[in-house]
Batch of 2 targets.
Target 1
Amino acid sequence: MASIILKNISKSFADNLVIKNVDLEINDGEFVVFVGPSGCGKSTLLRIIAGLEDLNEGNIFIDNDNVTDNIPYDRALSMVFQSYALYPHMNVFENIGFSLKTAGIKKDILSKKVLEIAKILRLEDLLNRLPKQLSGGQKQRVAIGRAIIREPKAFLFDEPLSNLDATLRVEMRLEISRLHKKLGITSIYVTHDQVEAMTLADKIVVLNEGQIIQTGTPYELYNYPKNLFVAGFIGTPKMNILDCYQRGGFIYLEGNKDKKINIKTKLMDVKKIGFRSDNVILSDPNKNTLLGEIKFCEYLGSEQFVYVDCDINDKLIVIKISPKIKVVLNKKVGLKFTLENIHFFSQNGNRIH
Amino acid sequence: MFWKYGLFCSIFAGSIWGAFWQIIFTMMGILTFGIPLELDVNQMLIIGLVSGIFYINFQKTISMKIHLTAIVSMTLLVYVFNFGKPYQINESLNNINIFILIFLTSAITWISINFSLNKISIGKLSRYDLENFYIKLMWGLGLIIFILITLVPFYIMIMTSLKNQQSLILNPLDFSLNINSDFKTLFNSYIELFTDFNFHLFLINSFFVSCVTVFITLFFSIPGAYALARLRFPSKKLFSSSVILIYLIPSIVLVIPLYAIFSQIGLRNSLLALIIVYPATTIPVALYMLRGYFSSLSSEIDDAALMDGLSRVQIIFKIAIPLSKPAIVSVGLYVFMIAWNEFLIAFMFLDDPSIFTLSRGIMSLNSSEVPQQHLMAGAVIATIPVMIIFLYLEKFLISGLSTGGVKE
């Protein structure tokens, strides 16, 4: 168990700067999720922490020890890979026990420990199988077992669930969560799936183009996104973002015809507003609403989303409604906003408080 | 289009198989009987054509009896066409052999027609049947031609090596085997090669040089290929692309300066010279092949091993080598064959008969004093070990050992 501190980390491949001056503090026992679009540098950052990539600048501290120049093994971290990365020529037992064998642990202690781990991960019956004889979920459990057995200072997960199918993913997500509760070991988890990020994390780190955009709890990120990027990235469906301008304290939407919505604010320089799909109320068209037409409908069983065309730069607004409502396409509807759920952004995309 | 109809297919396949087997069997007749037979392609072409049409019309009702009747009537037709004297052969020659030859030609032609026209109807064919027919026909022809051009020279080589000087001079075309002769006369050439011509030494020399070459090549190319596949270092790209450049220089160009250099440092007439030069030519290609295989392995496995505390050298031994066994075996085999068959450098460098390699040794037989069958026996001796090793190691060449550890 350990705290991990990154100080001013930079990394470039050839001339391409992929990590730009990243500072981050991870507390002991915390479950931190790196999230961001593909190519944002989140995996590279994880590999830098692991020691699998050198860095050009900066320092890494684990438990206040500077480990910047240490080889991966000496950092006492363990990693779970996207492709599982099991050793194909070794069976499950050998795979899990490999790091202990390398460290020269006695055989009887080793096998006792492997059996212990296998029990936690429900792998007892599979110990003699080769990786190719396992299913995806089993492989990933073996990979986790291999990571646990070393009793590392921290776990690093590199998109461990992205190769699994949807149901198994949910199952394994719970399993990882359960393990973290049980072992309480600091964990860093990289994913591009923001549902995984929201459900697992104590702290989410949103990355884009090699920089940390925002760090916070899932609650903070969802409700107080620092800028348009975070606002657009966290939450499904995406937050509705519309261009606007202010006149006499009221917000007007930019569009073919300037549209007034019934929102008044004292904030200055509001150029964009954002609101989530469940923060708009669908009503019959009347004076205090934004007029629009329902264009599409996605029925998901427990909820449904309608896409409303309000004639604003061809943008469709997504609204979540009760699945019981019978949706008629091309029907004229009104959109009602509530002030407390609107996010205001300035010209450069930052949140205005 | 006429070629889309089953009838055309039957004519096409029938005549091609007829003509094809006529050529092959006439050749085989010449090689086994040792008599110059006259080749007449047309007769069998026509007989095959007729058989094809016959088969496609009656294939649904065909039985064992009809098969036999067809083959016998094809044989008889050959006799009818030639007025009872196929191959224009005098009565004095063995007619039974000729009959067997013609019967075999007919039978194989008939079987081939069966094979390629199976389930083909007489009318317009569906695209699937049509493709199937042409693919099967080409596949069959290609396979047989390929087998023949590989086996015939080998057959001639072995048969010649088992003959004696007298019968070779008497009829050089006769490749039949005299079964009545005893072991010692049959294998006379081999016995002489091993007793009088030091072939046991050549065999040991060749084996020694080839094995050492394989060992040195793998010793350098495995770590080298691993580094090229996995590590980042300056000028890696230049290095990896220039490795293969040595193959742009023909060895005949290299051998003369090498001759000069090795003569000056006094290594020329020695096996050590070969052990230095052979790996130099095989390492680049081994490096190239192994690099491709190592790159195809998931680098995450290496990362996992690094996390588990292995050094890069340990990764090569504990991860990379076990996972690429099939590739390493095939590269080793390839290098062995290059070293075993290498002639030019051995020919230039070696003067002392006690250190000849096999190819150099066979070359030394090529004089007017040594009978030709000895040369052939030498060639057989040079070929057999490689064949045995290849057949033995073939089971290691299965790929797919690395499947399962990572998600593809």
Target 2
Amino acid sequence: MKIEVQNVTKRIKDATVLDRICLTMESGTVYGLRGKNGSGKTMLMRAICGLILPTEGTITIDGERMGQEISFPRSVGALIETPSFLPGYTGLRNLQILASIQRRVGKEEIEDSIRRVGLDPADKRKYKKYSLGMKQRLGIAAAIMEKPDLVVLDEPINALDEKGVELVRDILREEKERGASSSPAMIKKNWNCFRMRYL
Amino acid sequence: MYSNDKSKRNFFCLLKHDAAIGILRPILKWLPVILIFAASGGYLLAMVEASAESGTVSSKATLGDMLAYVFQGKTPYNPEDKESFSIPFGYLLPNLYLAYLIGNYPVKDLLGTGQQILLRTQTRARWWLSKCAWCAGTVLAFYLVGYAVMLVLTAAGGELSLRLTPELGNLHGMYTEDPSSMAWLPSAFVLPIATSLALSMLQLGLMMLIKPVGAYIAVAVIVSASAYFYTPLLIGNYSMLLRSVHFMPGGLGFWLPLMADIAITLISAAAGLLAFRRYDILDKA
């Protein structure tokens, strides 16, 4: 997979939130975005996911232009800002609902991804009863459960304890290894093992 | 590439999600619908009963009487008349509450789980079509609940017939030359639903351009203005039986309002789709 961001500018009302961004990302690498508050890290992630469209410039994924040939990356798992799920359902049920759309994974894989983030798939508590850290972990599980070609994680270690931070680091390494051919992941934290991009 | 089967399955999952989360899950939101229709229909039954006790009426209200009463709307208001404008609560309340139901679910959905769903459905068009179907489903469910309430009320305290009772004309205000004629029924059954669908789709489309609260206000203004002004340009007029040709000489017919409703529905859906293709999904509505 190759993501090319070419001269992307995004203006929202009078504010320029992205200003002529150019970058190229390829499979098998974990990329980190670093910058001041409000420098546009989240906006760039949203743009790469297809959630916002550039005012100027282009984003192409494997040669297909976002907003024209494709609306969203063909295989993407994302956690952007705060995770959001249906409050009245358990974590497992929430992920099952999401997985039912593409049916790429079954119950076992969903349960595996919940275990990978340190949660218990048999937990009967509803999402609204989850702590912030648990919500964050479930958000990460949702992003990786379908083994997407592109993983976009925005502030993945928010609300996580030390063990959780280590867990995310391990998950990213595993994702990188799994996707040696196709798994760029984006995060927003300065971890030495990743390629950094300053905005 | 997505195969056709996968696309269909994908869309079906979206529909299921919207039906479950947008219609069935917020079950308490349907309670006021029952109350609104029960209050309106119950008021007619109470009036008929009071009139029967005083001996001015000898028959029971029929289902037809109730339909006519609930969807009567308001006779055209003439500002030059000495009478002041009376607010038609029976017409405004259901319409404003339906607009509340349409409210902000699509946008709220986009800011929550809907965002994850959207990424998995792969196209904005499919997501939008599913929301249009949800909108139609909500309108239909709204009227089905209303009809069910009227049916129960009439079964309990009236007569299960669709005929209008002439001697109740002074109670429900519906005078027709031929009470045995059923020609008014399509206007009572179809036009309120078609008009509500048009208004709801307009609201849905506007949500893609302005904030949900702005879209709600726009619909509320159209509905309120329709009560005040009698003109085919304000579509709220179409759902008022008292302004139809069956109950008012020179009133609105059936086909033209229906065509206008369908046109507004389709144009709103198409315009909403175009707007949604360029819609930025941010963390705030």
